[in-house]
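#dry-run=false #mode=assembly
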Amino acid sequence: MSGPTIYDVARSAGVATSTVSRAFTNPARVGEATRTRVLEVARELGYEPNPHARALTSNRTQTVAMVVSDITNPHFFELIRGAEMRAKAAEYTLVLVNAEESPRIEQEQIRRVARSVDGFLLAASRQPDADLAELAASRPVVLINRQVRGVPSVVVEHSEGCRQMVAHLASLGHTSLVYLAGPRNSWMAGSRWAAIRAAATELGVTAHRSGPYAPTVSSGGAAADAAIGTGASAIIAHNDLLAIGVLRRLAQRSVRVPDDVSVVGFDDIFAADLCTPALTTLGGPHEQVGRAAVEILLDSLTTRQDRRPALHVAPPSQLVIRDSTGTPLGAAPQRQGGAG
Amino acid sequence: MSGPTIYDVARSAGVATSTVSRAFTNPARVGEATRTRVLEVARELGYEPNPHARALTSNRTQTVAMVVSDITNPHFFELIRGAEMRAKAAEYTLVLVNAEESPRIEQEQIRRVARSVDGFLLAASRQPDADLAELAASRPVVLINRQVRGVPSVVVEHSEGCRQMVAHLASLGHTSLVYLAGPRNSWMAGSRWAAIRAAATELGVTAHRSGPYAPTVSSGGAAADAAIGTGASAIIAHNDLLAIGVLRRLAQRSVRVPDDVSVVGFDDIFAADLCTPALTTLGGPHEQVGRAAVEILLDSLTTRQDRRPALHVAPPSQLVIRDSTGTPLGAAPQRQGGAG
DNA sequence: GTGAAAGCGCTAACAT
DNA sequence: ATGTTAGCGCTTTCAC
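#status=ok
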């Protein structure tokens, strides 16, 4: 059934099991010659350490869990990819958990896998701050695109990004915008709105908020209708998926983008560059975020548990200007055409 | 550090540890009253079975690994999503492994996690048949979009799909097509080409093959150039990513799609519907494929190991006709415009 | 239906 | 530097 054990190797190599164990987990504490011999024998026998036996005594599993709020969202792909690669490089295994936008499922799953993993990567967690703080107190946790006091996190910088976004819109002549908000329990939704509103105030632009909306293409229909209703000439959607849905509905309604209304999204997913018109969006180094999060997590696993500061990393976002933003012709008809 | 054990529960409930164990893993073999009491006590104490201790004796981990050839390809995300959901429903955990298009990495990673999982889902494996057969002989394996004699698999039906694709092209007036092949060690690439060639022969269409190409957007440039070189009026790309890359290059070169040349892809990824022109492609129920694969795997875990037939499931593909295919104006100028 | 006890394969004191 | 020896928390015969 299962392969050779540490005993087989020990016997074959003429050493004690503890020596074999050390040869694998703590090579420095075994004599040069012994070590090579042991490893040699192990290789010959095809010995592979049993991770469960190992975990049982050492409480280390070489596994980390990545929990994403919605595996349906392509945005997470890049995060997952970065995390997987970094984990693999460190000989860690990545367990993938989909919270399906439900705080309840999220928590259930976290409990379920808690014993099998060394730590958690929580991407866009929908749980309340208190729950996250509590979890982080008992297990190593790194938050991604979510910030909670005292918990390490990697968040794509968006405050300045939102400012740039609003500035871009303002410079095109927009004087009124609407933010189509993401889910109520999305920290990002709140944080982005705050940044947008601040920038809008500063730049003399009127900003409204509508929502919350599920961050999906299909909820873009209702979101677009609501946005049009506000009379704003610029729409900032919570993410690219929603923005793409908005674009669709706008096309159906023969509202021209960007002539009649400008649309911008967040994340710069692969599809943002392909849709028509190509979407202006606030992108970020998502893959790198995934890597960084794993790095911090692994760090907190190896480093002594003494009070390291809960670090917060915020790699810069970048406003990618494409074709969905432009001068509103209705509002500023100094160009060629008239209003819609 | 870690929570209460089976001993704590046993003591509190006034039973033996074996009874507690049974209450969890084999409820039928414990008296009604005892069971409820044990479970009650366990809940009160916040007891959670330790999966490693459990795995150590039982050799079952409640975990399956999904290995994908390239996590970069959005196509896999539907597969992953389906698999994750089905696994979760069965209280199994999904481990995600990216083979990075390398048979070597694929094999290494499989070895690495072999002891930690109950079985493998191998999506678009790049390994030789022999290696897969060998692996399948020692561990439960389900292949996805790959077929190897004697190994259970779920493959989106594509033989008939390819035929429809070629028929669609032929009906539009195309008499010559080129298939831009995927990676050399991609089973799908070979299988699709065989089906395309057969259909082409049957329908009196000339078919060329070019490649292999990496199934990525960026290799679409060279692929497009080669395709144009063949003079074919229709291009069948190995997957949507490659097709999108082809579309890009064609646009750069001012080759009109579909007037000058038609383009079709495979997979019907999210972006296929968004690019310009929208891509005609052979889609499939990918999420369902992921689910089905997990189901078969779990089945082979629970069912006795006696010789079940290695089942092969092939859910139907569907030709999604969009705007990238049309009548070649150069070849059949019976419409309005002239050739390019 | 329930209990006693022997491991599963490994790590980690503690010796030497 | 290496060996001895307890367990880690659970499952699983084997008794009763």
